[in-house]
């Protein structure tokens, strides 16, 4: 007796569920980033000016979180449902992001003077709004403490802040934030350590070694130059999941198309001598 053979399965279940878990993981990361960003925004009591939105860490978290959630949604559902349309959308969104990242890096390298000026402008905007945005304040303090720097170009950049400008009404006038102060190991934080220090000349400040006098922009650039291997490793670690997602999705889509073609073939019949014929077999 002849029996129609089942079409062979060419879709890898391992690849399918790896892609599903891979994108579900990033979907969760995007959700956490979005949640933290929204929580940070709701905690702000002051009105945010439009000009400061681009430098607001909370807004950046919300934007990046939404982008990750949208992209990983296509990958997660597409892998689970074996949907070519969703998977192709996911793949090309990832390709576009990678291309934009590469172009951004090349343009930043080619137009470095302009990029440097733009970064310095954004840092100075952050200095102006230092006391008005707690998230921005924490970011600036973290950078100054990590890279042992103060201000954008030098300590005098803090004169553009209304609380730290010289001859201002604040007790902090002509000073710098405590994150600019040189700290020894085990020393407790003195939030008043930077008050009124800029009344002294920079050479005296450098000799006393009580506050950092190097600008943060130069300090960050020097750090990157001194840690090229670390920067390269981080760049690879950041790029690898993106390329992995693109390649695996391309392979998986190929398997789905192959499975569709396999199921579209005319049925092949195989002789089964051990099978008892049924009435329906004779009718066929």
Automatic annotation (TrEMBL):
Assigned GO CC terms: late endosome membrane; plasma membrane
Highest taxon in the source lineage: Eukaryota
Record membrane topology: Multi-pass membrane protein
Cystines in this chain: 150-166
Alphabetized Pfam families for the sequence: Tetraspanin
SUPFAM superfamilies in alphabetical order: Tetraspanin
Coiled-coil features, chain-numbered ranges: none
Predominant cellular place of this UniProt entry's protein: membrane
Localisation per UniProt entry: Cell membrane; Late endosome membrane; Membrane
Keywords (A to Z) from UniProt: Cell membrane, Disulfide bond, Endosome, Glycoprotein, Membrane, Transmembrane, Transmembrane helix
Signal peptide: none
A biological-process GO annotation: protein maturation
Bilayer-spanning residue ranges: 17-39, 59-80, 92-112, 228-253
GO molecular function terms attached to this record: enzyme binding
Record family assignment: Belongs to the tetraspanin (TM4SF) family.
Self-association and partners: Interacts with ADAM10; the interaction influences ADAM10 substrate specificity, endocytosis and turnover.
Function (record text): Part of TspanC8 subgroup, composed of 6 members that interact with the transmembrane metalloprotease ADAM10. This interaction is required for ADAM10 exit from the endoplasmic reticulum and for enzymatic maturation and trafficking to the cell surface as well as substrate specificity. Different TspanC8/ADAM10 complexes have distinct substrates. Promotes ADAM10-mediated cleavage of CDH2. Negatively regulates ligand-induced Notch activity probably by regulating ADAM10 activity.
Name of the protein described by the UniProt record: Tetraspanin
Organism of derivation: Actinia tenebrosa (Australian red waratah sea anemone)
